[in-house]
Amino acid sequence: MSIEDFVSQPNRDHCTVLHPRCHGNTTWFHLTNSGIPKCLNRMLNSMVRHPHPTYAKMPLEEKELWFRHFAQEFTWEPHLTARVRTAFDAKAGSHYTKQMHEWKEKWLHNEVPKPFLGNPELWAGFGAYWSRDETKADSTIHSTNRNSERKGKGKATHNLGAMSKATRQLQLFHELGHQPSALHLLKDAHTNKHTKEIQDVVAREICKAVDLQAEAFLQSQPLVDGTPACTEVPVEVINNFVLQATPQSRGRIFGLPEEFRSSASSRYSVDEDLRAELAQKTTEMEEMRTQIHTLQENNRDMETRMATRVQEEVQAQIQSQMAAYFAQMSQSQPPPAP
């Protein structure tokens, strides 16, 4: 059975519903309270069978098994399967790497995590991988990158703790009643609650540059009867300024959630899932039109048959009455005289 058919099965009301737009009671991979991290933790503690260094090195059949297990707890519209699979692989990959780091720390302290207490061979396999010279060299490079001072600007800091940027964005949406701008998100995530100052140097530089651009934008607007035609910078323009001023690395934009990782544009494009939903609704409407046309044809055929049948019954009744009348007339007439 395909995944599309599986998620279309009945009696899946217990499953958490996924949708990239997070409407209603749905959730998505970038939200902290989605339940997905806990699901991945359970899978990491029970479904690792071989000492793969990364999730990407895992064979396709094992990845498929993980995804099918995931589909037992989460569900989605069938047309979203490809998008869910892509997001799942990305989330599982980052989670696997994070778990590998935690397991390695225990290995360095001669500790054995609970999932490996009954499988010493698997634990030994991971230990052999971490003992390799090339693994140690890669680890040193990654550690240096994580602790990078960003060309003298210090380590990256924010005040969100374990909360994801997307979750904070959703909270701000409910607080404000509308989507916060990228600048609002940056300031909210990096402003110290006590000093009211932006501590992260990169974030402070970005916010200052965008504030200056926003001021210049307002000053450049024409006057109407001596009054500025525009007194507030549109959110799309602010977002464009932020995207232009923010450093990007491997498709990631500093300080912003996933939905801002597209190209800098003053207009929001229609989401893939929205186009897919539109295509699905169009198909459903075409099917409904076909069904209605078929029903109309059937009704016309039935009406024709009923009209023909009624006509035949009326004609038969008339003929029967006429035959009875003539029979009665012939009986009532006296016989001819001899």
Helix content: 55-70%
Secondary structure tally: strands: 6
Give the strand order of the largest sheet, numbering strands 1, 2, ... along the chain.
Answer: 1-2
* Overall shape: elongated
Backbone structural class: mainly alpha
Q: Sheet bearing the most strands, described?
A: 2 strands, parallel
**Structural domain count:** 3
The overall average pLDDT, rounded, is 83
Cα end-to-end separation: 96 Å
Question: Can you write the helix and strand succession as a string?
Answer: HEHHEHHHHHHEEHEEH
Number of helices in the DSSP assignment: 11
Task: Give the oligomeric state of the chains in this entry, treating copies of one chain as homo and distinct chains as hetero.
Answer: single chain
Protein name: Transposase-like protein
Keywords: Coiled coil
InterPro entries: Probable_transposase_24
Region (Disordered): 137-156
